[in-house]
Amino acid sequence: MQFKDYYSILGVARDAKPEDIKRAYRKLARKYHPDVSKLPDTEERFKEVGEAHEVLMDAEKRAAYDAIGTPGSDQREFRPPPGWDTGFEFSGGDAGAGFADHSDFFEALFGRRGSQRRGSAAFQERGEDHHAKVLIDLEDAYQGARRTVTLRVPVPDGQGHVVLTERRLEVSIPRGVLPGQHLRLAGQGGPGSGGAPAGDLFLEVVLRPHALYRVDGRDVRFELPVAPWEAALGAEIDAPTPQGSVRLTVPAGSVQGRSLRLKGRGLPGDPPGDLYADLRIVLPPAESDTARRLYQEMADKLAFNPRATLGV
Fold first, then answer.
1. Distance between CA 255 and CA 266 in Å, rounded?
2. Which residue from 52, 61, 273, 307 has the highest number of Cβ atoms inside 10 Å of its Cβ?
């Protein structure tokens, strides 16, 4: 995916004020308007200029865009840093409310969140709903928890710049919450006008990557190392789970990649998910005379060709 340098597209500095951005946009929009320009790439340039204007004129999007910094020399291979947008509080519509002509770069950063905002406020109008992503640990999804989350809120400073302020909220994480699920905090969105109630804050749950487990819906998987003799002969071994270790039976004749199912030990729910232990056979190193002798004995006595299925 190609990085979009919105400042270069409009020809403005990174500290440009809104009026400078608006002036540059108007000039380029006239230049590349399909009804005016005869250049072969005018439609693409017109969309690109409009997208740059949308991001840089929106205080929230501009702050989020600036937070990713600038890419390296190969802008074609740009990928947003993992979890770059967690903790950013956006107002207005959530993903799906945007326009159809955004670039892949835009949608990788903001989803399909558009710039549509409400019109002039009536005397009484409920506040806008806000949206943010929050990282939680897998253990919190299993057990439920109460956590303090810190959100970064982009706020214009009145001088044409955007500053990030922080606010902290106590959040109850329900047991069995799934990645992508939204937690609603009533009244924690934008303020209402004319005495109308505030909007709500919706927190999208993102699971922090775990060193051992990976989540697939309510099911959870992990790799379980076993010795060759445990896989071949069968064994009773201790295996970890997010809720503590369990005694697990490895059936005789197990092969690499075999999955052992622990029913109901996935993420809680109705019904709960399952936990799968994917067997990974680990060979002991031939670092001693005894180990080398045993390997040589197997080579001499076992009629085993690991490449038999390849026809060689």
1. 23
2. 52
**Superfamily (CATH H level) for 62-115+124-209:** Urease metallochaperone UreE, N-terminal domain (2.60.260.20)
Largest interatomic CA distance in the chain = 90
What local confidence, expressed as pLDDT, does residue 64 receive?
Answer: 80
Residue 224: Cβ within 10 Å count? 19
Confidence category of residue 158, pLDDT binned at 50, 70, 90: low
Q: In the CATH hierarchy, which fold is given to the domain comprising 1-57?
A: Helix Hairpins (1.10.287)
Tokens of 126: 């409920």
Residue 71 vs residues 133, 190, 257: alpha-carbon distances, Å: 23, 33, 38
Q: Tell me the domain boundaries of the chain.
A: 1-57, 62-115+124-209, 214-310
Give tens-digit pLDDT for 260-280: 999 999 999 999 999 999 999
Residue in the structure block whose two tokens are 């970890």: 240
Range of lowest pLDDT (39-53, 96-110, 225-239): 96-110
8's tokens:
């270069």
Residue 218 half-sphere exposure, CB side, CA atoms within 13 Å? 16
pLDDT per residue as tens digits for the range 240-249:
999 999 999 9
The highest-level CATH class for domain 214-310 is mainly beta
